[in-house]
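Before the break, one more example. Copy the sequence into your notebook; we will annotate it together after we see the structure.
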Amino acid sequence: MSKGGKVIRKFAFREDPEKPQVRINERIRLSPVRLIDDEGNQVGVVSVDEALRLARSKGLDLVEVSAASRPIVCKIMDYGRFRYEQEKKAREEKKKQHQVDLKEVKLRPNIKSHDLETKLRRARDFLEQGKHVKVTIMFRMREMRRPENGYVLLAKVREILADVARVDREPSRELEGRDLTMVMRPQRRQVAAKEVNDVNDVNDVKDVKDVKDVKDQQTPAPSSVPTES
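Here is what the structure looks like once it is written out:
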């Protein structure tokens, strides 16, 4: 479709997500280029065709590493291996990030004392396991007229769980829809105790295995010498 000699696209397509984020090989159109070989040595300024020829002669790829420079900078490398190492590095960095295990406990602003004790006992268990707890106060239509009841209840929750938790996120000044929330995180000593318990569990398993190995070594092998008849 054209208008006034200009081509107008009816549909706009997004780029292929699998498409390389950098230009490689024939996708590099600018020439000349400043070339770096696969060993990191400066080759100099050559035509893009010459750079491609050198890359192919080594069974490698020509990769654009600096598009802002003039001439652009390209390097000869194994692009598949380069992407693999980059993705592996990204996965390792992601593993290092602290993953927060968040549990939720839901309460009503007019909850009975017995029900509150049951709910907070469950919250305490989560906190002692090193998990974060999101305390949510759920309001009904009429209860929304007295939001202060929710703040009073959250203050009570904070006081009851003060020995195992501290507030990680304070409740907002206004209701979030019909809810009022507060996030609590375990005290540092609770997290440390969990890590110690995990190490002890591993050591216990190792000790059991070691004892079994010692017993196996001490158990005499059955004699193969025939007895006299």
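The longest strand covers residues 179-186. Residues 88 and 94 are 10 Å apart (CA to CA). Try to locate both features in your own notes.
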